[in-house]
Amino acid sequence: MIQIVQSRIGAGFENNDTFLNYFQYSEHGVDLALMECGYENCDPNHYWMGRKGFHIVHVIFSGKGTLEVGGRQYTLQAGDGFYIAPDQEVKYTADEHEPWEYRWLGFMGTRAVIALNLTSLPETSVFHVSDLAGLNDLLGKVYEQASRMTEQGELMALGYLHFFLARLVDDYGKKERATNVSSELVNLATAMIRENYAHDFGVQEICRGLNITRSYLYKLFMRYYKISPSDYLLKFRLEKAREILASQSCPINTVAERTGFSSHAYFTKRFRMAYGITPREYAQSFQRPLEKGTDK
Asked: Does this model's pTM top 0.70?
């Protein structure tokens, strides 16, 4: 089931700045899901700062602004675009005198991971668009169909999203593709973990998404990381939990939910086994009181 929420927040294309948020409730490890799409004609110095749990691509159609990501700052203008990875901290700001106007798409899923790993976008973050009018038309069709809020419209929007990903691979595909199949597979597997760790996601979903057996996936991880895929996923979740505990005042059960653990008790047990202290003790070492909630 997909719930669609529409929100209007100001002036934009045709005096209407609109975006759609899609909240995906179906099984995680989905092939491809549209999470968000929209367009905005920004006010001077308008900015957005934070992170989201899915891939986002912006394309700038007029004006200019700045992007801050990965410790670097980029000045961008009409004809440029930028990619934001899931959970990547960013800030982007419209220019004071020539504020930008852009469209964007947010999406997730195995197909998205595979397509983006065929491009240079995860490494470069920014790109230049050669056919701005054509891409504007394509992004507009995604939004047009999504805004119908019907099953048919949803399918059409996903179809255009597939076209969009194909355009990215065609225009920004890596010049030198890795010929080592096992290396590509293990890179895709770890990318799937980074994207889905916060959900009900495990080794079975990785195998299904890559169409490989559990034993072969196990051999790949042992070869490249000297650790099993299940242990890699557990370690990744625990590291993400530590990041949250060190920077935010969340109840422990909330941290467990946000990092994909099935229960508060299991999370606490695994955290103590890995680090020798409980999540609560770790959070208190930063001298920050926890919010009300289950905090053992």
From this structure: no
